[in-house]
Specification:
The structure is a homodimer of 220-residue chains.
Chain A lengths: L18 H25 L2 H8 L3 H8 L2 H17 L11 H18 L1 H12 L6 H24 L8 H17 L1 H8 L6 H18 L7
Helix pairs in contact in A: 1-2, 1-4, 1-6, 2-3, 4-6, 5-8, 5-10, 6-8
Chain A binds a DNA duplex (18 and 18 nucleotides) through helix 3.
Chain lengths: 220, 220
DNA sequence: GTCTATATCGAGATAGAC
DNA sequence: GTCTATCTCGATATAGAC
């Protein structure tokens, strides 16, 4: 009768269900994000993810079905965070304050979720098969909106004349490079992981550069 | 007797040897760059590279031995191009001219060799196992040198006060994003590949942003 | 020097015991 | 619901014919 209501365990949303299920699904997702970030989709093995999660390999298939489904789940978890943090960019806002806050938020995200950033970067480099819908719908719409705001700032003479879309490309690139290409940065700065103070310094450098680049600070 | 002089074919430098060898090696390297860029090291298969090169699979192993050796050969071909183009940055040069030329050169490289850029990006994201020596030696030395030049510009009041190393991180990120994350850019701009005119526009936007960010242009 | 046919190995997926 | 043992397939690499 109500067969349509029944699903096999593998098809159930891993986020719902009992406490054990939720805990294990979270463990797996966290481990998967790390391993996919480090090795890419193809390079990552289910065995490696299972080991990182401290669970037997078969559990991953039990919870998520296939490797691809697990990967999609990881991406879904990341995307909203990746798109967010533009709410401060409004026509009424002070441009320097709004853009500064945006850059700081992106730098914080690179610091706190480098693996998430790397998963996205990897996906973009390799064709974004799973990401394209978000790019062409959500991201494009978001950038259209925020670009309109910046156009208003330009017309009001509150910011330098520039193409807002390319400004966003630069902002994303400058901030995400601290997550994605961390290794390059560490090699050049000649050491291990950046300390909090060093990262704070990096953030201030990027903010200052961006604000000057937008004509928002007195020349030094 | 002189066995030491003899090498198996697979061990011979593929760049040397007869005309056919050189032509085939070049075909393979070019195809490999494209496939590695699109799929990453693990995602790329020797069969796919062979098909792209129009040669039988066994030839790749005949010329380069292993998949890893082929990958190293691709990287080696790219690295010097990747490091180059900083020669304009000298104490005597005009900062705006030198930095503008550097940004334009990096933008040109993203336009003309996007696959090369993506191979490097992929390598950096995933641990840079093969690249680390270059990062810690050549790149670090290069950045040290050029940072000293920029420090001199700062002391002479010819450019805004900023941390030169973080400036380089930003310059690399802003320019390489047009190769590495091309898909994102196309989705936001709402179309297919950028035309020459669109790419020229992008280049001018980045150059203007960088020069303003360095305090090198009158405020707009 | 070149390519077909094959050996070998590792990874995703699953059956079935518990 | 959970995990061990196994199946199956695809990819690298190579042996050996031409």
């Amino acid at each position: 009768m109500n067969d349509a209501v029944h699903k096999t365990s593998a098809e159930v949303d891993p986020a719902s269900g009992g406490r054990i299920r939720q805990r294990n699904a979270a463990l797996i997702l966290s481990a998967a994000e790390k391993v996919f970030a480090a090795s890419g989709f193809n390079g990552a093995s289910m065995a490696e993810i299972a080991a990182a999660a401290g669970l037997p390999k078969a559990n991953l298939h039990y919870y998520f079905g296939t490797k691809e489904a697990l990967y999609r789940a990881v991406l879904t978890n990341i995307i909203e965070l990746w798109l967010g943090e533009t709410h401060g960019i409004t026509p009424e806002a002070d441009p320097a304050e709004a853009l500064g806050a945006y850059v700081r938020a992106k730098m914080r995200w690179s610091r706190e979720r480098p693996d998430a950033s790397r998963v996205i970067a990897n996906e973009l480099i390799h064709g974004a098969a799973f990401l394209t819908p978000y790019l062409e719908d959500d991201l494009r719409r978001l950038v259209d909106e925020k670009s309109a705001v910046i156009e208003q700032w330009i017309e009001a003479g509150r910011i330098a004349k520039l193409d807002p879309r390319h400004l966003f490309f630069s902002l994303w690139a400058m901030t995400q490079t601290y997550a994605d290409f961390d290794l390059q940065i560490r090699a050049v700065l000649g050491g291990g992981p950046l300390s909090d103070a060093e990262y704070e310094h990096a953030t201030e450098q990027v903010v200052a550069f961006v604000l000057r680049g937008c004509g928002l600070t007195p020349r030094g």
